[in-house]
Amino acid sequence: MRRGAPARRPVSPPAKAEDALREQAAIAAWVRILAVHKRALAAIRVDLEHEMTMPRFDLLANLSREDGQTLAALSRSMLVTAGNLTGLVDRAARDGLVERRADPNDRRAWRVHMTPKGQRAFRDAERRHATRIAKLFSALAPAELTTLTRLLAKLRDPMRALAASAAPAARGSASARARPARAATMKRERRRKASPDDEETNR
Questions:
Q1: Separation CA 9–CA 141 (nearest Å)
Q2: Selection from 2-11, 55-64, 121-130, 176-185 with the highest mean pLDDT
Q3: pLDDT single digits (tens) 17-48
Q4: Is the Cβ–Cβ distance between 89 and 71 less than 8 Å?
Q5: Which fold has domain 22-141?
Q6: How far apart are CA 33 and CA 30, in angstroms?
Q7: By CB neighbour count within 10 A (0-12 exposed, 13-18 middle, 19+ buried), where does 59 fall?
């Protein structure tokens, strides 16, 4: 190299360059999906909630696919906490849309069923909801919608596998964080139980 000449930057290997491009494309796709989801959900919520809240519609939609689910199953499929779901089911039951029935196989569990009134309400809301969804996707041709659906389905299984593999690590981390607290609690409990004997000994 001649004296005073600028140093050349090392050329990235093709594999690293390809990985960087893939990461950039993935982030761009992720941001776009989030933005579209947010805007679509806002538009649907404005229209739908004149008749029915989105959480209630989601509850009835899940029961229309499989009636008589347990609260635990509904919580998993709707991605809501058990506390939020209990309130949602209570309000829907109060309005006569669903009812709780004892699980014939487990006396401690309850199953949620749609009532005839709930079925009629959901059919009406679903019909109007389908019309709104079609308007939201009106910019895409039927073939493009088919391609989009196929690509999103292609992403679904790897994402589920990734979430499943991350769950044990998350539980292990939470358990590790909880161990010191449990140990301290047990230590305090031992001291509390030992204190009467100590007092008796010192008398």
A1: 46
A2: 55-64
A3: 888 898 999 999 999 999 999 998 888 877 77
A4: yes
A5: Arc Repressor Mutant, subunit A (1.10.10)
A6: 5
A7: buried
